[in-house]
Design a protein that fits this description.
The protein has one domain: Helix Hairpins (Orthogonal Bundle). 79% of the residues lie in helices and 0% in strands. By secondary structure, the protein is mostly helical.
Length: 101
């Protein structure tokens, strides 16, 4: 990845997160999360199909693309979950559980 590609990548990441955060002002964050995941899946299916020479090649690539993309998602999600665990108070604040009677 070139420096320009890397810059474009992070600019897009920031843009998508900003849009998601703004959407959370009117929609439950769980719905925003589900919509982002669905959009990413739909767009990735398009990318795999678009990069294929024909329908036959596409059909042959589906399983390897599925394995690659889900594996990459799992790795990235793990990194971000670990980051939030290490920086919870910084990112979220110092929440306390409500008293249970």
């Amino acid at each position: 990845m070139t420096k320009q590609d890397d810059d474009n990548f992070w600019e897009l990441v920031d843009h998508f997160i900003e849009q998601a955060n703004q959407s959370c002002d009117q929609v439950d964050p769980g719905i925003v999360s589900a919509a982002l995941l669905n959009a990413a899946a739909r767009f990735n299916a398009f990318v795999v199909a678009n990069e294929s020479l024909d329908k036959k090649e596409y059909a042959e690539e589906v399983e390897s693309a599925l394995n690659f993309l889900t594996g990459r998602y799992r790795e990235t999600l793990r990194e971000h979950l670990d980051d939030y665990r290490e920086n919870y108070v910084k990112y979220i604040g110092n929440k306390t559980a409500p008293d249970i009677e």
